[in-house]
UniProtKB/TrEMBL annotation:
PANTHER family: AB HYDROLASE SUPERFAMILY PROTEIN C4A8.06C, ALPHA_BETA HYDROLASE FOLD-3 DOMAIN-CONTAINING PROTEIN-RELATED. This is Alpha/beta-hydrolase. Keywords: Hydrolase. The keyword Hydrolase applies. One of its GO terms (molecular function) is hydrolase activity.
Length: 371
């Protein structure tokens, strides 16, 4: 496996010696607002130009990633749907990957479990097809429909648009489950990095949205989310990035400040935005909020060399304790950086990635099969 850290297929540079030295003085105070995290906001034009540059690099990296055998599958069809929850009106796309037997479901009446997936990329990069390798295991092992969400990206659409789109995707699939041959009582969310955050926060946002509706006018059909599968998610924006790097066992393998600064400046708007919002930092949600929205099973993966390891591990443990008391299947993957499974190696897939995808899908299948 390559020693070069990557983010969603993009090779990133190591820290310089001076940068590693500076980490020893990292500020560990709690951040209150977006301004505390990013300082004076860069111009939106600069952010857009930077995002376009990094998106082009990511496209090259993911193209190489997809060339490694076995080649990942392609979506069977897509649906572009209107946003209904977000104040920023628009559209976004759902990528549908379907299992064997789906084509004849209209005749057989079969209904399939569904895994609703959110890609990574710091809420700034990426697309709904990035997790196609994981999709293959969901189709084959869970016999489930895999729906990957092309939520709207920052800086064009900063927080909370991505969270709103994520909840909107769930709402759409619940409402149109019969037409899509989906069993609304066998749903799960999944996601990687920023998408891992959305796999969690989408359930919180959806629960709150449903509570806000007048049931006499906008009844949401009965449904059940059985599990969350979250891979190396960001769960706490109130901790400074420098402090997170300093806490890593391999700071040189963490994502560079150039990239994380772009992510944060793009997504965290406006400067007065409170970073302890549960839709942004799910670890800051109350026990009551988590107990009301988090499904019975939570499948949680972190990476040993990731700056997000500590916060992810702490949050996973909290979800498994009273009073939340969820069935948490937690694993720290040793000796790998953030998004190691998206390595841009055209010769072979990232070490242990397929074994862990298979393990995760075994847990999802177990969740779907529970009474």
């Amino acid at each position: 496996m390559s020693n070069i850290p990557t983010v969603d297929g993009i090779p990133v540079v190591r820290l310089t010696a001076s940068e590693q030295t500076n980490l020893r003085d990292a500020d560990t105070k709690t951040l209150d607002t977006a301004h505390d995290a990013i300082g004076p906001a860069p111009s939106r034009l600069w952010l857009r130009m930077s995002a376009i540059w990094w998106r082009s690099l990511q496209y090259i990296g993911m193209s190489l990633h997809f060339r490694a055998p076995v080649r990942p599958c392609s979506p069977n069809f897509t649906k572009t749907i209107p946003s209904t929850i977000s104040k920023s009106k628009g559209e976004f796309t759902l990528q549908f990957y379907t299992p064997a037997g789906y084509e004849t479901a209209s005749k057989t009446g079969e209904r399939f479990p569904a895994v609703v997936n959110f890609h990574g990329g710091g809420f700034t990069l990426g697309s709904g097809t990035d997790d196609a390798r994981f999709a293959r295991f969901v189709l084959e092992q869970c016999n489930a429909v895999f729906i990957s969400v092309d939520y709207r990206l920052s800086p064009e659409k900063p927080y909370p648009v991505a969270v709103d789109d994520a909840a909107d995707a769930l709402l759409y699939l619940i409402r149109f489950a019969p037409d899509l041959h989906i069993d609304p009582f066998k749903l799960a969310t999944s996601g990687f990095s920023a998408g891992g955050n959305l796999a969690i926060t989408s359930t919180l946002r959806l629960a709150d949205h449903i509570k806000s509706l007048d049931p006499s006018h906008q009844r949401v059909p009965e449904h059940r989310i059985r599990a969350i599968a979250t891979w190396y998610p960001v769960t706490d924006y109130t901790k400074a990035r420098a402090a997170k790097r300093a806490a890593s066992v391999r700071p040189d393998q963490t994502l560079p400040a150039t990239l994380t600064s772009l992510f944060d400046a793009s997504y965290l708007r406006p400067g007065s935005l409170k970073l302890n919002s549960p839709y942004l930092s799910p670890s800051k949600a109350s026990d009551e909020e988590l107990a009301a929205a988090i499904p019975e099973m939570v499948i949680f993966y972190t990476c040993e060399w990731d700056m997000l390891l500590q916060e992810g591990e702490e949050f996973a443990k909290r979800l498994g304790r009273e009073p939340i008391n969820r069935d948490v299947r937690y694993k720290m993957i040793p000796g790998v950086p953030h998004a190691w499974d998206k390595s841009p190696d055209p010769i072979r897939v990232a070490q242990n990635s397929e074994e862990l995808y298979q393990e995760c899908c075994g847990y999802l299948k177990e969740a779907f099969e529970r009474v």
